[in-house]
Amino acid sequence: MSCLNTDLSLLRFISAELTRGYFLEHNEAKYTERRERVYTCMRIPKELEKLMFFGIFLCLDAFLYVFTLLPLRVFLAMFRFITLPCYGLRDRRLLQPAQVCDMLKGVILVICYFMMHYVDYSMMYHLIRGQSVIKLYIIYNMLEVADRLISSFGQDILDALYWTATEPKERKRAHIGVIPHFIMAVLYVFLHAILIMVQATTLNVAFNSHNKSLLTIMMSNNFVEIKGSVFKKFEKNNLFQMSNSDIKERFTNYVLLLIVCLRNMEQFSWNPDHFWVLFPDVCMVVASEIAVDIVKHAFITKFNDITADVYSEYRASLAFDLVSSRQKNAYTDYSDSVSRRMGFIPLPLAVLLIRVVTSSIKVQGVLAYVCVVLFYCGLISLKVLNSIVLLGKSCQYVKEAKMEEKLFNPVPTATPGKPAGKQQGTFKSTQDENGSTSVTNQPVHQKENMPSLLITSNSDQFLTTPDGEEKDISQDSSELKHRSAKKDLLEIDRFTICGNRID
């Protein structure tokens, strides 16, 4: 009888499992949120690639500037310096600060170019080719880390040189002088160019390996980056840093692939058939880079509840840098602004590319020199066209983000010991003083709405602290969240993430 009851119970259980129902609308908010997450992941590739496309052309504009407009600006600065006695010393400055910086960049490029002639590319290639696959894989990873570290310090060296050479003379000097700063800048550009050359050589060895095992291992290394990033907590500012780093990395890889193709085409006497042999490997490198970036950003935004619209804010921030650098009273050059924002320093990469091109392409005869002049004119045309299009798109992005007033009211930089003065965590419009709705212009209203804006989760209420201290902790956490929200994207650069100074 007990067995019969067991069978009947089992039958009832199976029947209940087959016929039971449930209603998803009872938890409508939860499922709506999950559906929005799916839509966000589907929008990430489009929004991310729009940001990448815009950022890569910003890097291209700064890179082409070194080859096109910088030599002309150096020539104009030298012409002014030579003809200065004809005009008299009516001006207190022999050269304008921008002209001094241009001449310093030009001299650094020339010195480092001649220093690169003492580096034998062929010997380096055969030295790297003789190493084992595992050793080359370790070397390539070390080079990537070294490139990021030396880039973070390199722009500081260049900025220190520019400021030391152009600061007002009546101020009390507290530095070591222009010449030591200049020597440090030359050493930095030279060492960074050698580092990038070793990267390009390692990639070239991977392309020319017979079984392509090294290239496969190097490309699979990009997917290891997903593991190291997607499971970490990211705020909008941190994600902005990562996006800028990805833009710089992708553009640098394109230049490295160009160098690899030039070296290989030279070895095969510029046979066009060999290019189609390299083309599948080039496509594999580019495709793996794009796939890794999409997957990484998709899951970072999913795990941190960040919408896809944040990439339009990032794009507007980059556009703001371009528009502000075109103003008459701009405080920095655009190429330096890109360097600080993305970590992309064009001088070492330009030195290496000039060295590779001049060693790979032989210019002989009048016709060859005419082709060089025409090619240079084409580069200038490309630079001007790219700058015009970028400036137009940047003005459009700035207007869409309602950031025009920031062009005339620069974002104040935070002094040591004092927080930033404005609430600009997002690119929402802030009206002027006539009928302002800005948080900064109405501090009382901001304080009243503080509890409604910063709602703590339920888990924050179960701290293992006495009851008397629970209120103070919640207030401190609210103040911390409010203080971190004040950090504007325009106030940070790429290297603040290295010093953990974002909050």
TrEMBL record:
Residues 471-485 have a biased composition (Basic and acidic residues). Keywords: Chondrogenesis, Membrane, Osteogenesis, Transmembrane, Transmembrane helix. The chain crosses the membrane at residues 52-79, 100-119, 178-198, 344-361, 367-392. Residues 409-485 are annotated as: Disordered. One of its GO terms (biological process) is ossification. It comes from the Eukaryota. One of its GO terms (cellular component) is ciliary basal body. Its main location: membrane. It is a multi-pass membrane protein. Residues 423-444, 454-464 have a biased composition (Polar residues). It is found in: Membrane. Belongs to the TAPT1 family. This is Transmembrane anterior posterior transformation 1. The gene is TAPT1.
